[in-house]
Amino acid sequence: MENRKLAVLIDADNAQASLTAELLAEVAKYGTAIVKRAYGDWTTTQLKSWKEVLHKHAIHPIQQFAYTSGKNSTDSALIIDAMDLLYTGNFDGFCLVSSDSDFTRLATRLREGGLTVIGIGEKSKTPRPFIAACDKFVFTEILRPEKTQETTIISDKPKARTTRQSKSKPVVAKEIHPLQAMFTSAIDAVARESGWAELSAVGSYIAKNDPSFDPRNYGHSRLSQMVKKLDFLSVQEQRNGSKLHSEIRIKDGEAAEPAPAAAATAIVHAQPENPPPAVTPRKKRSPRKKTEPAGKAG
């Protein structure tokens, strides 16, 4: 993954300039950005925040005038350049930075050409078809670690208060049910007969079916940390030299385990209530000694 040559194409009309540093750091995890281009009409005031960022990160701005009001010609310029770069054969993948559904067909075409497509966009704006068309999709909301930590700290305080005052904790736990269905299907697909599945295989299966899946969306930096916090999963780890091998499975029979103990307790308490009839035997009367008449004595 480190040697992959990537072309980073940014739709400046649908991307945030303040996240450029975090965005390029994310791209570096998947390969080296050989080409970095940002598309937009740089004569407008809407892209003023991009001007300092472009020079700082060596991003080449591509000027595209809006020939007709209400029409976005930036998308067409980006698509044409992407196809030109595809035909050069010098790249291993593309990184499309946008939340626009117009790039859905472009992502599909690039993947048909055998290249990896990484999408980056806002979670609230990006349509599902564009997400599904990419091999991997990263939401920009998780690229700000400081804000994520602040949100976590603030949200933890009211949770602690509500648990003391009322029993609203189980309601929050039910929100992870979509995750449970996702992990259940993934484990069923790759698990062995014992029910245990390799964590790496489960992660690969989930990523193929949901490109937007990322443990950081749920407050965890790694998948191995995330599965340890999910109550419906059992985790076992084995160390082989310097490598840590993790396996997971779905928990089962938790509700049925206390039943035998309860039944045994009931039996123990039931014994004194019905004592057997022969517990206390009747005492046998000793035979009376015959007493001779007083006249015969002596």
TrEMBL record:
GO molecular function: RNA nuclease activity
PANTHER family: HTH OST-TYPE DOMAIN-CONTAINING PROTEIN (PTHR35811:SF1), SLR1870 PROTEIN (PTHR35811)
PROSITE patterns according to UniProt: HTH_OST
Composition bias type Low complexity, residue spans: 256-266
Residues covered by region (Disordered): 254-298
Protein name according to UniProt: NYN domain-containing protein
Biased composition annotated in UniProt, kind: Basic and acidic residues: 289-298
Pfam families: NYN (PF01936), OST-HTH (PF12872)
Residue ranges occupied by any HTH OST-type domain in the UniProt entry: 175-249
